[in-house]
Amino acid sequence: MSIFTSLLNFSYAHCLSICGVLVPFSLLMTFTSLYHVGARHPRQHLYLTAGLASLTASFMIFHVWSWWIIGVIMVPTYILSIVAVVCLAINSWAISHQTSLLQVLMPCVAVSRSAYAKLVHR
């Protein structure tokens, strides 16, 4: 049995566990990358979190790809692939063009701060 077949069998046998770990971790690391960009932390922190998020998103793409190989095409496979691609895109943007991402984040932060302030002062 080849390594590729073994990986495919592992992916089928442990799908729920794989997705249960990769999806939250990828999203958490992507939000952490956005936090590092917004807080203007050193690039080393951003590289670490964006790298981990990109790695887990890549694993998720390979996991979904393994299901497409056997013909399982359902809504969850599309949702998982979209989540993975969005995480990869955001982290690539954070690494390659940190200043333009910061320009997009700052208005979002301002709106959320004002909404939070309105909720607190009711």
**What class would the helix/strand composition place it in?**
mainly alpha
Query: How many domains comprise the coordinates?
Result: 1
Q: Detail the poorly predicted runs.
A: none
* Major beta sheet summary: none
| Annotation field: number of helices | 5
Query: Averaged pLDDT, please?
Result: 89
Overall geometry comes to elongated
Q: What is the percent of helical residues?
A: over 70%
End-to-end C-alpha gap: 65 Å
Radius of gyration: 18 Å
Write the layout of secondary structure elements.
Layout: H1 3-13, H2 15-38, H3 43-69, H4 75-96, H5 98-120
Keywords: Membrane, Transmembrane, Transmembrane helix
Transmembrane segments: 12-34, 46-70, 76-96
